[in-house]
Amino acid sequence: MTNTKKFTLTAMFLAILILLASVPFLGFIPIGPINATTMHIPVIIASIILGPKIGGFLGGVFGIISMVRATVIISPTSFLFSPFIPVIGTDQGSWKAIIIAVVPRILIGIIPYFVYKLFRKKAEKNAGAKSIGLFIAGFSGAATNTILVMGGIFLLFKDSYAQAVGIGIETVFSVILGVVFTSGLVEAIVAGFATAAVTAVLLRLTKTNATQKL
C-alpha cells in the first residue's frame, strides 16, 4: 500500500472518529454510570488494514477524545477519564485518569493487528478462516478496551468509583465483572461482526487496487 493511500485511509478513519464523537448517542452510549462506545470499531479496522503504528495512533486519538469529552460533559464518573475533574472526596483530579483514558485505547489499535496476523496465511486461502480471524481480531480489540478500562478503574480508583456509583467497596469487583460480561460482551460481539464485514471488503479493495497497478 502506498504512503498516499495510507494517509488517505488514516484521514478517513480519523474523520469517522470525530463524527462518532460529535453525534450524540452514536460514539458514546450512556449505560448506567459508564458509557458504552462504538469508537473502538474504526480503530480496530484501521489496525488490521494499516498496521499497529497507525492503529495505535488512532487509538490514542480515541483516548484523547474520551478525555476531552469527560472534561466537557461532566458526569459522576468523569474523574475516571479526565485529570481535570476532581476525584470524589478531593479537590483535584488525578493523572491516573490519563492511563485509563488513553493506554487501553492505544492498545485497541495494536492488538487486533497481531491477532489477525495469526490467521493471515490461512485467510489468504480460505474465506471462512478470514471471517473467523477478523471476528476474533475485532472481538479481542473491544475486549481489550473493556477489560483494561474496567480493570484500571478497579486498581486505581476502586474507592472513588464505589462512591460515584453508590455501592459498597466490597461489591466493586462484582459490579465491574458485571459490566465486562454484559455491555462489554455485547460491545465485543458487535465489534467482531462489524470488523469481519467491513474489513473483509476493505482488504479485498486494497488488494484489488494493488494488483491493478502491477
Termini separation: 12 Å
Order of helices and strands: HEEHHHHHHHH
Task: Describe the sheet with the most strands.
Answer: 2 strands, antiparallel
Give the assembly state of these chains.
single chain
What share of the residues does DSSP label as strand, in percent?
Answer: under 5%
User: What integer is the average pLDDT?
Assistant: 89
Low-confidence stretches: 208-214
> Helix proportion of residues, in percent?
over 70%
Number of helices: 9
Give me the count of strands: 2
| Morphology | globular
Q: If you compute it from the alpha carbons, what radius of gyration comes out, rounded to the nearest whole angstrom?
A: 18 Å
Strand numbers in spatial order across the main sheet? 1-2
Query: Would you tell me the structural class of the helices and strands?
Result: mainly alpha
Brief summary of the model shown:
This protein has 214 residues and is mainly α.
Topology overview:
Elements: H1 3-22, E1 28-31, E2 34-37, H2 40-50, H3 52-72, H4 96-108, H5 111-117, H6 120-123, H7 127-165, H8 172-181, H9 183-213
Antiparallel strand pairs: 1-2
Helix pairs in contact: 1-2, 1-3, 2-3, 2-5, 2-7, 2-9, 3-4, 4-7, 5-7, 7-8, 7-9, 8-9
Descriptive notes:
The termini are close together. This protein has helices spanning 3-22, 40-50, 52-72, 96-108, 111-117, 120-123, 127-165, 172-181, 183-213, and strands spanning 28-31, 34-37. The model is unreliable at 208-214 (pLDDT under 50). A hairpin with a 2-residue loop joins strand 1 (28-31) and strand 2. The chain is 73% helix and 4% strand. The protein has 214 residues and is mainly alpha-helical. It has nine helices and two strands; from the N terminus they run H-E-E-H-H-H-H-H-H-H-H. A two-stranded antiparallel sheet has the order 1-2.
